[in-house]
Amino acid sequence: MSAYGSDMSTPSASAIHILGVRVDAVTYAEALLRIEGFVREGGPHQVVTVNPEFIMAAQRDAAFRDVLNRAALAVPDGARILWAARHLGRPLIEQVSGVDLVERIAARAAETGWRLFLLGAAPGVAERTATVLTTRYPGLSIAGTYAGSPALEEEEGIVARIRAAQAEILFVAYGAPAQDLWLARNLARTGAAVGMGVGGSFDYIAGAVKRAPLWMRQRGLEWLYRLIRQPWRWRRMAVLPRFVIAVMRQSSVASSQTIF
Question: What are the domain boundaries of the chain?
Answer without folding.
Answer: 16-259
